[in-house]
Write a structure and sequence with these properties.
The protein has about 350 residues and is of the alpha+beta class. Helix content is about 55%, strand content about 10%. It contains 10 helices and 4 strands; from the N terminus they run αββαββαααααααα. Strands 2-1-4-3 form a 4-stranded mixed β-sheet. Helix 3 runs antiparallel to helix 5, helix 5 runs parallel beside helix 7 and helix 8 packs antiparallel against helix 9.
């Protein structure tokens, strides 16, 4: 007897298989979604791309004006707000190479104080154009250094009661060399002052405060010592009398004239822009020293103080002249080395300061 098969069995198994497949697919989809969620969480939050900021930087224009003539020297453009006065000085130096940053003094007002290097440009700005007044601190340094000795010597020359005994001053007769020494000393520093204003073009940077203190202490101090001895009521004239004074005074005046003409010749070469050749002597006999030495201005300067020592015959002048000769020789050596690099064929047979010797 045949066993009757249940007709619903295959369909039921088929349904169970389909249900199992659907459950498996649903489980797999859940697992995939879970893995995707974990991946997103591990990657962190998705940050939106930053929007591009179109920021506009405002630049300043700095107008540099001469404090004396009120004429415009140059305009320093595209100065960022974060810039300082020192940055402006460097930009000014690029536009005008003869003005080193260390010798540039800038003022917001003509009679105002000098601005510090750390001062921000933005703190000075009222508009996009800033006007600053320029002062040459290099020239100011030399004017201060040379004006002091001129005035100090005259104070001792008039024999103030606070310096000398008035009774002794009236008794003792002044030797003519005292008056001549005053004339020569004043002439020397007046020449320096006039050349500083109208002849010299300084080419090196200076640190005004440091150099001014050192220079003034040296020149002013020695001038006080020299003037005190020469103008003292008990001052004794030179041993060889009138001849010694006359010859020394003549040598002094010749050295002063030579120094002036050499400085004029050097300034003329700088102003004409002819820096490709070494300065040559002209028809002026005082410039013929260029044939023998490369720094004749130092030769004449040393000669002036040696002559002044012989003329006055005093120990302070002798010590000052000795120190000046040493200083001049150091400067001449330094310049001579620079000349040898730039003008070797023309300078190689010359001495630095003293013909044939040095």
């Amino acid at each position: 007897m045949l066993k009757r098969q249940n007709p619903g069995t295959p369909e039921r198994s088929r349904d169970l298989t389909a249900d199992g497949g659907a459950l498996s697919m649903s489980h797999n989809d859940s697992r995939s979604f879970f893995n995707l969620s974990q991946l997103v969480l591990s990657a962190g939050q998705i940050k939106p791309s930053p929007a591009l900021k179109h920021s506009k930087i405002t630049y300043f224009e700095v107008e540099i004006v001469d404090v004396q003539s009120k004429k415009q020297i140059c305009i320093v453009d595209k100065v960022p707000p974060a810039s300082t006065i020192l940055d402006v000085k460097h930009k000014f130096h690029k536009a005008c190479p003869q003005w080193y940053p260390s010798r540039v003094g800038l003022q917001l007002e003509r009679n105002g104080p000098f601005l510090k290097d750390s001062t921000s440009i933005q703190s000075l700005a009222v508009s996009s154009i800033i006007t600053l007044y320029f002062t040459d601190l290099g020239q100011q340094f030399f004017l201060t250094e040379y004006t002091g000795p001129l005035l100090i010597y005259l104070l001792f020359y008039i024999r103030l009661s606070t310096i000398y005994d008035q009774v002794e001053s009236r008794k003792n007769f002044r030797h003519p060399v005292v008056h001549l020494a005053c004339f020569c000393h004043c002439l020397h520093y007046i020449r320096h002052l006039l050349e500083t204003l109208f002849v010299h073009k300084f080419s090196e940077g200076h640190t005004p405060l440091k150099n001014m203190i050192k220079g003034c202490a040296f020149y002013w101090g020695f001038t006080s010592w020299i003037a005190y001895y020469i103008n003292h009521p008990r001052y004794t004239p030179p041993s060889f009398g009138h001849k010694q004074v006359s010859y020394a005074a003549l040598a002094f005046l010749m050295c002063e004239a030579g120094n002036h003409f050499i400085n004029v010749a050097l300034a003329h070469q700088t102003n004409s822009g002819n820096r490709t050749c070494f300065p040559s002597p002209t028809y002026n006999p005082f410039t013929w020293l260029f044939l023998l030495v490369s720094c004749p201005n130092y030769t004449y300067e040393a000669g002036s103080w040696i002559s002044f020592t012989v003329m006055t015959q005093t120990l302070p002048v002798g010590i000052f002249a000795f120190l000046m000769v040493i200083q001049m020789s150091l400067w001449a050596q330094k310049k001579h080395k620079l000349y040898l690099k730039r003008f070797y064929p023309e300078v190689r047979r010359k001495a630095a300061m003293i013909p044939i010797i040095f």
